[in-house]
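If you are new to this repository, start here. Below is one unmodified record pulled from the training split, so you can see the exact layout before writing a loader.
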Amino acid sequence: GRTRWIWHQCQSVFSADGRWLGRRATNRDVTRLKETERELRREKRLFDAGPTVVFKWKATRGWPVEYVSANVEKVFGYSREDLLQNRISYPDIIHPDDLQRVSEEVEAHGRAGEDTFVQEYRLIDRGGRTCWVYDTTTVLRDDHGRITHYHGYLVDISRQKQTEQSLRLIERQLENAQKIARLGYWQWDRRSNRLNISEAIYSILGLDPGTFHPSRSSLLHLVHPDDRRQVSAFFSRMEESSGTDAIEFRIRHGGGDHFITMRVEYEDALDTEGRPVGKHGSFQDISLIRKTESQLRLFDKIFTHTIEGIVVTDANGIIREMNPAARRMTGYEPADVVGRDTSVFKSDRHPEGLYEEMWEAVREKGFWQGDIWSRRKNGEIYPIRMHVTSLNDQRGEVGSVIFVFHDMTEIRSQEKELHFQTYHDALTGLPNRTLLLDRLKVALRHARQMGRKLAVIMVDLDDFKQINDALGHTVGDLLLQQAAMRIRQCVRENDTVARQGSDDFIVLLENITDVQAAADMARRIGESFQAPFNIESRQLFITISAGVAVAPDDGEDEETLISNADLAMYRAKEDGKNTHHLFTLELNERMTRRFSLSTRLRQALVDNEFLVYYQPKVDLIRRRIVGVEALVRWEPEPGELVSPAEFIPLAESTGLIIPLAEQVLLTACRQTARWL
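And here is the target side for that same chain:
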């Protein structure tokens, strides 16, 4: 009942004379052939639907295509007709960067007599996409062994290549991650006793893979001598027992004198059936980690033991932590302030804009410093010097803010004391000359602006040196202190009393109406000294001489006023002390001349400018000379005589009276000798 395929051939039969005799038929069973053809067509359909594209091209210039499977359009997008009619040649679809390599390999394999070889290269599909192909090429030769054609079986392996590239990328990323983490992989095979280390470990240890052969002994040779024994024991445990273990030790880097800290861990390596075959694990350079830990411990000690207060906040000023010094300074415990805003420390002595400027500087520049007032828990306001620094997070934004501050209370007190000592007399506590000049400069400016007067009174204690020399410096100092107090009690609250020198005081009277007001003040000061001073069970009496200069009449600058008041004071001394004198232009001229003569007097002794005149003493009864008086005259220039009434007091005040008297006496004696 089976159907059979028959190949039937029918042929007419003719006689010799051409007469048709009939037909002759031949039948042949071709069922198997038909089944084979049907199977071939089915396989062709399956092949054309599959991923493998078949090419056949001539081994001539341009590689013209003679055959290509129908699935070429499905796989690469090219028309089968375009390829068969050579509108597109096979080299046209090979990637330009691979064409030369493919051509050279095809020729090389052909010359080598190979019948089949494989290549991987890139094609450009009809849409312009680059795809990788795995090409199994068969070389066809003629009877003389010449290459006539090539058969290529191309499989698109683009997805496989992408997977390989992804794996290589992951592998590179893993290698980079290991390099960043300073981490490497190692394994030890128990059967071969072979130790293998990854490329990262060579890099970490600074070793050359070509010259260094990893083994227990070679690694131990690099270990720091002080750590070598424990590392050797670690390797022994690894070889003899199962399980996991870890160790940290120092190992030489690059064969030099520098050591790094290494952490080595291992666990059992198992085969596919779960049986231990050795060990594998990691090498990690933890030098930076240990250094960081050491720095953190150091920073923790600094944070805990520094005398500076430290408060750490987030970017919004919410307090996270404070150190013991901050607790001592502020009086707050961490539980009181953690989670609260830094405004808990505000003193309310600064405008709100100051804190806004501070936070703006921290956000923009990362730093702010300044002196501010802060408030303790008990409400006390105290000065601090504060440095504020921001720390950025991984995104480069402010993550934390560190406030470092120092209690300036003691320093401010010391600065205040130093400032007082700089501008005040240590003995009396009065302003010194520096502070007086500063106040006088300001007072003169105000007086000019307001059209008012001010006065400077120079006060000198009469004969203070005699008391100081006779009774000692202790008594002298106590006398100066009480004298300063009496002068201070005479003046107004806003007037200035300063000590200029040993026994000299200066009084600055601001905003006076006239000269008489200054004269009255000088008189009042003099009268205050009429009462005795009770010092160490003694009653001491001392008077003053005072000179008064008034601005703007007697000078418009500090030095002129003080100088003119000094001149007036010296005039009071000349008038017998215990009085005061007002500065006048006549006095200025007189004192200027006095100073000029004082300067010339010493040189006059050297230049013999003093002349001795002799006035005879006559006995009128006996009418004869019984003696002479030697009279000294000063003749600085020929015809210019200075009166003894002028230069004798000057010589006395300058200490030149004795040299002058000796010179006059010597001249008189010589003259007497000549007369006799």
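Two things worth knowing about this chain: The longest helix spans residues 158-180. The mean pLDDT is 88.
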